[in-house]
Write a structure and sequence with these properties.
The structure is a single chain. This protein is about 20% helix and about 25% strand. It is of the alpha/beta class and about 260 residues long.
């Protein structure tokens, strides 16, 4: 078996579902590893259990990226923060950085108004970084670089592009309608993890369908498209067939705990 290097990247879908309770799909969440850092994208209900099923402890997570603050994307954040205080012998030692759009600090302050000290950390152990949700933004964290751009959902909604030390890149759309910004962000990416909430015939404002996600992937010339964030209606139709109307490249329909290989 070949040992991992600092240039390797890996992606595991933790939650491929939505707010609708499901035994098959947890709410939105993705685990990414790059340069030795473990990154979590969104933290809907079921995330911590799925992490454990991948062999990952919550203490291993050094970054959480939030696409927006809807409950199916942030619903397990308070529980995640609370859980990092226990057991006493294994409290968080390395800082946790939360990255999100503008206004997230206020959101966290309001959570503290509800939960108080149970979700508060010692100074230096919790950092909040707000990305610009009005335009492009970028930060180099050393093990990886992140770019963000606003997309068509909520005012605070942003998509992310992570580029590792080996120059591989993964884009996470979060929730969005068709977005020229997302096309721009995803240009020539190795993987585009793209929401595809409902079948084409049930298109809803603020969300993509399989053919629209395929159109974004084609225009961006990505190497692999991963569809996720499926409402139950998606399980009743041929999602792949709908996506193939606009996308002919490598395609993965997300399931919880599926590992996505980089091209």
């Amino acid at each position: 078996m070949t040992a991992k290097t600092s240039n390797d990247m890996s992606v595991i879908i933790l939650g491929s579902g939505t707010c609708v309770p499901s035994l098959k799909r947890s709410s939105c969440s993705v685990l990414m590893e790059t340069g030795g850092a473990k990154l979590l994208f969104d933290c809907g209900s079921g995330t911590m259990r799925r992490l454990l099923e991948t062999g990952t402890k919550i203490f291993d997570i050094s970054f959480i990226f939030f696409s927006h603050i809807h409950p199916d994307h942030t619903g397990e954040l308070a529980s995640f923060l609370f859980a990092t205080k226990y057991p006493e012998t294994e409290r968080r030692q390395k800082p946790l950085t939360i990255v999100a759009g503008s206004g997230f600090s206020e959101f966290y302050t309001r959570l503290k108004n509800v939960y108080g000290e149970w979700i508060e950390f010692k100074p230096g152990l919790l950092n909040i970084v707000e990305m610009d949700n009005k335009g492009k933004d970028s930060i180099d964290f050393g093990d990886f670089a992140v770019k963000s751009i606003p997309v068509e959902h909520n005012d605070e909604s942003i998509a992310y592009r992570i580029t590792g030390l080996g120059k591989k890149s993964v884009v996470y759309s979060g929730d969005t309608d068709f977005s020229d910004n997302l096309v721009d962000l995803a240009k020539n990416a190795d993987i585009l993890i793209c929401e595809s909430a409902l079948p084409d015939e049930l298109k809803a404002a603020g969300h993509l369908t399989p053919s629209l996600a395929g159109r974004i992937a084609r225009q961006a010339n990505v190497k692999k498209l991963v569809l996720t964030h499926f409402y139950p209606e998606c399980d009743q139709v041929d999602i792949e067939k709908q996506c193939r109307m606009t996308w002919s490249g490598p395609l993965v329909l997300a399931e919880d705990l599926i590992k996505i290989e980089l091209a």
